[in-house]
Each structure stands twice: as structure tokens, then as C-alpha cells.
Amino acid sequence: MSDSNTTRIAVIGGDGTGPEVVAEGLKVLKTVAQLDGFKYETKSFDYGGDRYLKTGEVLPEGAVDELSTFDAIYLGAVGHPDVAPGILEKGLLLDLRFQLDQYINLRPVKLFPGVETPLAGKGPDDIDFVVVRENTEDLYCGVGGFLKKGTADEVATQAAVYTRKGCERCIRWAFEYTRRRDNPKKMLTLVAKTNVLTYGHDLWWRTFQDVAQEYPDIKADYNHVDACCMWMVKNPEYYDVIVTTNMFGDIITDLGGILQGGMGVAAGGNINPEPGGTSMFEPMGGSAPKYTGQGVINPIAAVNAMAMLLEQAGHAASAQRIHRAIMTVTGTKMQSQAAGRMGYSTSEVGDLVVEQLG
Ligand code: IPM
Ligand code: MN
After folding, report:
1. How high is the pLDDT of residue 4?
2. CB 168 near ligand 1, within 6 Å
3. Which of 73, 80, 93, 109 to mutate to test the pocket of ligand 1 (most atoms within 8 A of CB)?
């Protein structure tokens, strides 16, 4: 059935509104593949909260092996009101990131035309940067434990683990990305906390300086993470590409998400850039259970995630085609990016994007 010219995509609609937004992304994929003449195939997997409640397992035996044979994974959302927080996030999202060695978490922070930002006086020309978050180390490793748990003398530790290999591969990828990104600034900002995290972030700092020698055409810049939060709000136009650690990256990308208009538009990629690596793309919105099945959720973030997927899968022109269509739809059609206030239903927004592709 499939050959090396076919892009194979595993689809995990997931929980809540995940399947609804994924359906719109797949609609866009179908049209763009026809227009640009590439072949793809999809296979759906029912992983998520409902399956967990039925079977007691998040990812069944062999799931990761099977998923690793695909070019990419397209994920809707995880999070179910009847499942304790953390189980699905850890058992699906974090597990796939670690096991598929998706060591880059790519979060573009771009304000599309017509989209409202909470920043007064800032527009699409000011908010256009990318965060490259390390995605396999740091506080996310789950290294730590309890001592005397449940007693008055209880001790808890949670270690931030950083390796030379882990930070170097992320930093190098970020320099490469900055070089090929279409932005005249050509500046990569390391965001860390070297004044306090004098071991782990010293390793990051030294590695950043070393790798920077290989990229004399890129300005190597540094911000402490707390200062970065202020600049992102006050002068977002300062940034081109940010590279940062896993935990800080998690926090600053939510700040970035709201600057670009919120969860209806923000998308991210968990990328394994190695040959044969399987990357995973998702809208940032979460499963939004209260909106499930109402056709009011915004699919733009999921369509955006599909564009990122296609870019990584070698269909850059198709990704650009989708981006142009999104910008026309946000800029000239939609009333708002908030669920229920778009002026259109979920599938109508998908149809609007499809109309603009040609
Ligand atoms: C994200 C999410 C996850 C993270 C959660 C759901 C585990 O917040 O993708 O940013 O912390 O990485
Ligand atoms: Mn997060």
C-alpha cells in the first residue's frame, strides 16, 4: 500500500473536543494534498481518557512501537474529567515525547492578522517569534522521591537533570532553525537562570557559548527567564528565536500562547529531527470538555498544527499554503478566536480555510 513517497500519519483524536478539531485539520490535509499532489495515508488510534476508563491502560503494549513506524502523529487533546490529572498527560503525552525521543518542542508565537492580543498597542508585526524548548530532560525526568512520606518530617526531592548531549543537540537545532528562519534578525536568545541554577544552567550556558562558535552569522543572546517574561510582554518584537530548558519553556510558551491570541490558535510540535524520527503535532488548547460536541471550538490551532506537521514531513510549500489561508480567514472572516464567538461553527471555520487554499 504505502511507499516512501507516502506521508504516513497516525491520528490520535483524544479526549473532549480533540476529535472535532482534528477532523478539520484532516479536511485541510485532504485538500492541500490534492492541490500540491502528494500522497498520504492516515490511521486512527483511540488512545485517551475513554479507552483508559474501559481498559485501565493509557498506551497498550506495542503502541509506541507501532506509532514509531509513522512519519508523524497528529494529536487532538488529552484530558478527561473522570480521569485524575496527570495520568493521561504522563501516560500519553510525556511518555511519547520521551520514548520517541522528541527532543525539540517547537512553539511558534505568531499573531495572525485579525487576532486579538491582550498586549495594548502591539500587532502582527510585533509578535512573531519562536520558542525552541528542550523536551526530554530537566524536572520532567521524574527523578526524585519521598522520605518519611505522610509524616511531619516528610522530605520530597525532584531533580532537574541536564546532560551535555541533551542540551547540545537542542541548542544546535535551535541555531540551525534560526539560520533558516525567514527573519532578518538572526538572533538566538538562550533563556535560563544562570545566576541561581549555577550547575545545570552553567552547563547550558557553556554549551551555548561553544555551539555559538559554529554559527558566526547568528547573534547569540542571553536573558534570565524572569526578565524574559517581562520583555515578552513589554517588547515582544525584540525576539527572533528563544532556546530554553523544558520547565521554563513550558511556562513561557503559555505566556506566548496568550500573546498570540490564546488556545484557539496556538500550536506546537514535539520533534525528533533524526532521520526516521517520528514527530508529534498538537493544538495547545486542551480537551475543553464543556464544549464537546457543540461545534463551537476553534479549529485554527489544529489546522496550524497540521501545517507544522507538513513542514516537518517535507511539504513546506503546503505548510505555507495553509498558513496563508489561515491568515485570510482570521484576518477577514472570523469575528473572534474564542469558542462560541467565532461567528461560525467549528466545521464552517474548517471549510473557510479549505476555500482559501486554492
Ligand atoms: C505542554 C503541557 C504539558 C507539559 C503537560 C500537559 C504535561 O503543558 O505541552 O506544554 O507540561 O509539557
Ligand atoms: Mn504547557
Report:
1. 75
2. no
3. 93
Query: Residue 1 has what pLDDT?
Result: 43
Low-confidence ranges of the chain (pLDDT < 70): 1-3
The structural domains of the chain, with segments of one domain joined by +, span: 1-103+267-358, 117-136+163-260
Ligand 1 lined by 89 (C-beta under 6 Å): yes
- Name the strand (E) or helix (H) holding 219: strand 219-224
Q: Is the CB of 101 under 6 A from ligand 1?
A: no
The minimum-distance atom of ligand 1 relative to the CA of 254 is: 10
Residue with cell 511556562: 251
Strands 187-192 and 219-224: parallel
For ligand 2, an ion, list residues with CB under 5 A.
250
Write the DSSP string, 29-79. Answer: HHHHHHHHT-EEEEEEE--SHHHHHHHS-SS-TTHHHHHTTSSEEEEEE--
Beta bridge partners of 14: 77
The model scores a pTM over 0.90: yes
Please report the pLDDT score of residue 257 as a whole number.
Answer: 97
Per DSSP, helices labelled H in the chain are 18-36, 49-55, 63-67, 87-88, 95-99, 164-180, 200-212, 225-234, 246-259, 300-312, 316-332, 346-357
Class of domain 1-103+267-358: alpha beta
Mutational pocket test of ligand 1: of 80, 83, 89, the residue with most ligand atoms within 8 Å of the beta carbon: 89
DSSP, residue by residue, 262-289: -TTT-EEEEE--STT--EEEEESS---G
